[in-house]
Specification:
The complex is a heterodimer of chains A (214) and B (326).
Chain A lengths: L3 H5 L4 H23 L3 H8 L2 H8 L3 E7 L2 E7 L5 H8 L18 E4 L2 E4 L12 E3 L12 H8 L9 H13 L6 H7 L10 H14 L4
Parallel strand pairs in A: 1-5
Antiparallel strand pairs in A: 1-2, 3-4, 3-5
Helix pairs in contact in A: 6-9, 7-9
Chain B lengths: L4 E3 L4 H7 L5 E4 L5 H6 L7 E4 L8 E3 L3 E5 L4 H6 L1 H6 L1 H8 L4 H4 L4 H6 L5 H4 L41 H7 L3 E6 L2 E6 L22 E8 L6 E7 L10 E10 L2 E10 L6 E2 L1 H7 L6 H11 L12 H17 L3
Parallel strand pairs in B: 1-3, 2-3
Antiparallel strand pairs in B: 4-5, 5-8, 6-7, 6-8, 9-10, 10-11, 11-12
Helix pairs in contact in B: 5-9, 10-11, 11-12
The chains are: A alpha+beta (214), B alpha+beta (326).
């Protein structure tokens, strides 16, 4: 099994930048939190007391398989699958959009079914197999749906794209990509505020008509 | 989200042992509950996960069709027995939520979901359903989505489900398990009107568990339709929805079922309009008469006045679709 470190090891300059950006964001949000909390909490944060306080709350064991790799985790009951993927497993491809099940940016597959990971409690995923956007490609070879999204310009800003692609793959596997109308109906749980919908539909139709096993 | 304790009792009996304590909530799909917990609308001390209970089956019974409370909305909507025996239910389910949410949401959870009234969700606002006695923000506030039937001065919220509208129309029965055994409640009597206690959505006894629903056999397969009118074509709650099912022989209506969603605190069954239709010709004229009768007692609260026109037009349209006139 590949270690968590090797998964997140920067491999080129861009990734180094990306990863520094994430670390910066984490640190700056901590600083912001500190700036707005009372003095005693600042002192506590200095002494890492916050981490000790967190450990007092009951954590539960969670065994799940993510993109083919087994994980043994310890999670708070209130942690969502989305937060566990992003914050504990560093799988930040799955996006947090609305965080209330309204936008679809957090779509992942659980035992083959697409779901909203933001409304899924991690503790309820014990023994489940999760597939995220990171699990679709085979090494450098993109999944046909990823290729099709690039070819058809199925995105502008790209924020909704991981959720769109996970949903699109499920849409075909479920047999709900028979027509443009059906695709639009069965992709309605994924919102794209850039409005790339026509291109997303084209991408899905191409993969569907290509007939490859996805 | 407030901290809570998470438990997963091994059996139904063990679940019943723990759910009769205040501050305890059952979680199935969690699509509504987790959202409400994130927003601080509800803050249980203990969550009881029931997903491992054997309540997922969909089977034919001598009386009809039995659907376990934990059957997923997506599974029920695609099930062959459901398509064959109760196509109205499949159609209603497919019109609800999104594919992702239907893959999580259970039949029992769909019944137990709370209203989507904005004042219920906004903890800075008054809401008698969330905090009894705090007032109703919607009564004189933004009430475009709200009830036109059966509301009270305490609450004008609507029940948001599509599935429940179909189950009410189809005379389904809810099977409930308690410590003393199982009992059955007609679906139309499961949800309640707000009255002076809008904090109570339904008549599920405290500490008991929905285990399934049963839909009696009928002859309504050929002529049924679920019409959902909403602000966008897909993935939106109903402004008004209509479940319509007819048994037509030689152009004459033998049996009729009608229920509306998006108009009341519970799925709104239209018994009088159904009676009026029986023995009548399946025509637009009969349908308009039924729609007119169905609107007796309707009351709007300002922003939702449009529903007084939209609802009867939707009833007529749904019946035309059911009868194959469209």
């Amino acid at each position: 099994m590949e270690s968590k470190e090797s998964l997140t090891m920067p491999v080129n300059e861009q990734e180094v930048k990306d990863s520094s950006r994430r670390i910066f964001l984490k640190q700056s949000s901590l600083l912001t939190a500190v700036a707005f909390t009372p003095g005693i909490a600042v002192k506590a944060a200095d002494l890492h007391v916050d981490e000790e306080i967190a450990a007092v709350f009951e954590k539960m064991p969670l065994k799940m398989e993510v993109n083919g790799k087994p994980h043994n985790l310890s999670v708070e009951p209130r942690s969502t699958l989305l937060d566990i993927l992003r914050e504990q497993l560093d799988l930040t491809g799955t996006k947090k959009g609305c965080d209330h099940g309204q936008c679809g940016a957090c779509t992942v597959h659980v035992d083959g079914r697409r779901i909203n990971s933001c409304l899924t409690l991690g503790v309820m995923m014990n023994g489940k197999k999760i597939t995220t956007i990171e699990g679709l490609a085979h090494g450098d070879q993109l999944h046909p749906m990823q290729e099709a999204f690039i070819k058809h310009d199925g995105f502008q800003c790209g924020y909704c794209t991981p959720g769109q692609i996970m949903s699109a793959v499920a849409c075909i596997r479920e047999g709900h990509a028979g027509s443009e109308h059906e695709i639009r109906e069965y992709m309605s749980g994924n919102i794209c505020r850039c409005g790339a919908y026509p291109n997303i539909v084209n991408a899905i139709q191409e993969v569907k008509n290509g007939g490859q096993a996805i | 989200m407030k901290q809570f304790q998470y438990v997963q009792p091994a059996t139904q009996q063990a679940v019943l042992e723990v759910i009769n304590k205040p501050g305890t909530k059952i979680i199935a799909g969690g699509t509504n509950l987790v959202d409400l917990m994130k927003r601080g609308v509800t803050a249980p001390d203990k969550l009881v996960d029931i997903n491992h209970l054997p309540l997922k089956h969909i089977t034919s019974t001598p009386k009809g069709l039995y659907i376990g409370a934990l059957a997923l909305n997506s599974v029920v909507s695609e099930n062959k027995l459901v398509a064959e025996k109760q196509p109205l239910l499949a159609m209603a389910l497919k019109s609800g939520a999104s594919p992702q949410l239907r893959n999580m949401a259970s039949v029992g959870g769909n019944m137990m979901q709370r209203t989507r009234c904005g004042y219920f969700y906004d903890t800075a606002m008054p809401c008698n359903k969330r905090v009894p006695g705090s007032g109703c923000g919607a009564y004189e506030g933004v009430n475009r989505m709200h009830a036109i039937f059966g509301a009270s001065s305490q609450c004008i919220a609507v029940h948001p489900s599509d599935m429940c509208v179909a189950l009410a129309a189809l005379d389904a029965v809810v099977i409930i398990a308690g410590k003393k055994g199982e009992h059955r409640v007609p679906f139309t009597e499961f949800h309640r009107l707000p009255g002076d206690h809008p904090e109570t959505d339904n008549n599920l006894p405290f500490g008991e568990l929905i285990v399934g629903v049963e839909i009696p056999n009928n002859n309504l397969q050929k002529n049924s339709y679920y019409l959902k009118v909403r602000d966008r074509q897909s993935y939106a709650f109903a402004l008004v929805s209509v479940a319509a099912a007819l048994d037509i022989e030689n152009g004459i209506i033998q049996n009729a079922r009608l229920a509306m969603g998006g108009v009341a605190h519970k799925p709104w069954r239209l018994f009088d309009a159904e009676k009026l239709l029986i023995g009548k010709k399946a025509s637009e004229e009969s349908f308009q008469q039924a729609a007119q009768l169905a609107m007796q007692g309707a009351k709007a609260y300002g922003h939702n006045s449009f529903k007084l026109k939209l609802a009867p037009a939707s009833i007529t349209e749904a019946l035309k679709h059911a009868a194959g006139l469209v």
